[in-house]
Amino acid sequence: MLAGIQFGIIGLQHYLVLAALLFVCGLATILVKRNAIGILMGVELVLNAANVNLVAFNRFAHGGGAGPALKLDGQVFAIFVIVLAAAEAAVALAIFLNFYNNFSTIDVERAQNLRG
Amino acid sequence: MPILAQQSLSQPTLFQQLVFGEDPGLLVTFIYSFILCATVFAGLVSLVAMFCIWWERKVAGHMQSRIGPNRVGPFGLLQSLADGVKLLLKEDLAPDAADHFLFRLAPYLAFAPAFAAFLALPFGPDLTFEPRLNVGLFWILAILAVEVMGVILAGWASNNKWAIYGAMREACQMVSYEIPLGISIIVGVMSAGTLNMVQLGHLQGGGLHTWLIYRNPFVFAAFFVYFIASLASNKRAPFDLPESESELVAGFHTEYSGLRWSFFFFAEYGAMFVVGGIQAALFLGAWHDPFGLIGAAYWKLMLPENYNVAALFALNCIAAAIFCSKALLIIFIQMWLRWTLPRPRIDQVLYACVKVLLPLACVLLLGGALWQWLIPERPGIPWKDYNPFNFVQWAEAGFTAALVIQILLMLIGLAGFVATISWIAYAAASGRNLKQRLTEPAPIDEPSEGEVVAT
Amino acid sequence: MSFSVLAQSDISDAANTATAVLFYLFAIMAGGSAICVAVSRNIVRTAVALLFTLTGVAGLYFLLNAEFLAAVQLVVYAGGTLILIIFGVMLTSKSPFSRFEAKLGEVVIAMSLACVLLFALVMGIVRTTFATDEFPTGNYPIDRLGQVLLGDYLVPFEVVSVLLLAVMIGAAYLAKGRRREGEEGAARSGSLSRQAREWS
């Protein structure tokens, strides 16, 4: 199964496999946790997996020249992702705190007031 | 803004050359780095921390008309070592209701970042552990930001209300003060044009007037903003809310004892040295003396015909001594403030950050950027690219305005420094008389000359 | 440690070995603690595991010649976002070690789904041949990153700053609303002081 991968020489695929693992862990966290903050942590994991992919592709397949022509699109994308993740966490936590004030819990199963 | 020619990546550092010859293999480099990290750095951090703890007690003693530790070793220098042995022998307690795993993990989480931050500190032109780290300054900031996790976890895992209050305060304070800290550093970095600590050092090699603090008025002001913010982010008094003894027992480390407790102290004093080191490296000319002698000697030695490893090594040692004394001077000011100022409330601390320091830092950032645009500073490395004391050359190159500003600021800074030093000297001199009066042993035990001793 | 040296594409066995050792170190750190995040039931321990994941990923960024990004990861994620999350945990858990158990059926479904997805992704990655080209040797181009951010990506950069401003105002608004509500209805166990009393 892993015949295509050389273990000694670290290449793009190693990083991609690790990112896949992070992504799947994040997804499992989102599915399993009932604590809203736990779900937020799962989302952070997923975003990190995406970031690892972006930076790894930028390193191994950047498609640009050296020096002033060097392409850093992957890293710039990753920076934007990190910034947005921080913003998302701030807003999500504010929402969770409000939710907690109204329901005295952050169990997401309780958030069903809008269900008909 | 000067974008410096970057150091060649494959060039090994001076000490790698010394130990392994011209071109060590990469695996050798790796193993060497690991061993250096494990021995020299662990030793250095502990030494710095132990010295600072002794010094803090000495300073506190003298400020309160006491003597401080004076029994163990000369001047009580080995007191910290004795304390360390004592702490090693103490029982390692963990409260029953604590989360044991996190409780044990937290001290290491607090200590490891302070340790890792030494990685990029420039002790000398070739004495930096990783001189090729191009984001050195940012790396130190980032790794110090992780330190707060250990403190918060310690407070949380103790399951003690004082500890949790301490942890919450630390979280608030640290997260808020990171912002003015970072912005004030950016003001300095903007003027230098590099984040690499070694190149920051090289940039300031041409005597007092080329130090970054004197580059423009905004960097001068940013120096003080940085100092205040670094006090707060290091939870040093007057911002020691997370462990304020008078209200929270001991704050986040209430439940800790023995070696784990001492890890928090190692972390604190290590971090003090690191922020002092950043301040010395970014604003106060890193390892350079005020007259630019070291910079001149270094670049003379770097010429191929003069290259001499022994002389370079000696130069590095002197440079390291100068750098350490600058960092220790800043630590002394931190201690001075600690034993002088009262502690504000947490809302006052946050007010000072969000409503005073943060707007001030933003104004400085804007002003620093505009200043660079209006009055360009002289790019390049002193002694290598230009002679910093050849003022005619400055004028010819069109940097007269920058030179005048730098020299003016230098005079202001010098005046402030001399005033501070004479103040301290005066206080020490007058304090000595007072202390002699207070601590002179009254002749109780010894019978006076003419008195008859009852038998 | 000399990460930047190890990451350059100078093909020699020693370099490869060192890179491989470091990669597996950081990968095990990141991946292992990511699994801990998924399986841990204690929310604070989950946060600690997330800290190790983020640190491991920062180490991987070093190996990928992205030093600036590694520092950003540490300062924004580990030093900012994660502290915010832990702050949220502290404010919202009644007892210090709160647990919400998921139902067993949910866990089984989620885990089997995750395993299938992981298998599919890994197979996909291994069987694909990616076009690669060598990253130019030399120093990490931090000045280049700044030029890219304020050149090609100037518009996104500005949009992100506006978004951050909006987020700041929004979060402040939400927090302010909470305080007012807490003052009105203390019976709802809302305010921070009530929370503090519950801890003590």
Shape assignment of chain A: elongated
Number of helices of chain A: 3
The largest β sheet of chain B comes out as: none
Query: CATH topology of chain A, which one?
Result: Helix Hairpins
CATH class of chain A: Mainly Alpha
Helix content of chain B: 55-70%
Helical stretch tally of chain B: 15
End-to-end Cα distance of chain A:
49 Å
Helix/strand structural class of chain B: mainly alpha
Compact description:
By secondary structure, chain B is mainly alpha-helical. Chain B is built from 15 helices and no strands.
What does this structure look like?
The complex is a heterotrimer of chains A (116), B (455) and C (200). With 116 residues, chain A is mostly helical. Chain A has a single domain (12-106), classed as Helix Hairpins, CATH 1.10.287. Chain A contains three helices and no strands. In chain A, helix 2 packs antiparallel against helix 3. The termini of chain A are far apart. Chain B is mainly α and 455 residues long. Chain B is 65% helix and 0% strand. In chain B, helix 5 (136-158) packs antiparallel against helix 10, helix 6 packs antiparallel against helix 8 and helix 8 (217-233) runs antiparallel to helix 13 (346-374). Chain C folds into two domains: 1-140, Up-down Bundle (Four Helix Bundle (Hemerythrin (Met), subunit A)), CATH 1.20.120; 142-200, no CATH class. Chain C is built from eight helices and no strands. Classes of the chains: A mainly alpha (116), B mainly alpha (455), C mainly alpha (200).
Descriptors:
heterotrimer, A: 116 residues, mainly alpha, elongated, C: 200 residues, Four Helix Bundle (Hemerythrin (Met), subunit A), 2 domains, 8 helices, disordered C terminus
List the SSEs and their pairings.
The complex is a heterotrimer of chains A (116), B (455) and C (200).
Chain A: H1 12-32, H2 36-60, H3 73-103
Helix pairs in contact in A: 1-2, 2-3
Chain B: H1 14-20, H2 26-63, H3 79-89, H4 100-116, H5 136-158, H6 161-192, H7 197-203, H8 217-233, H9 245-248, H10 258-282, H11 293-302, H12 309-338, H13 346-374, H14 391-396, H15 400-439
Helix pairs in contact in B: 2-10, 2-12, 3-10, 4-5, 4-10, 5-6, 5-10, 6-8, 6-13, 8-13, 10-12, 11-12
Chain C: H1 3-7, H2 13-39, H3 43-63, H4 67-92, H5 104-127, H6 142-150, H7 154-184, H8 192-199
Helix pairs in contact in C: 2-3, 3-4
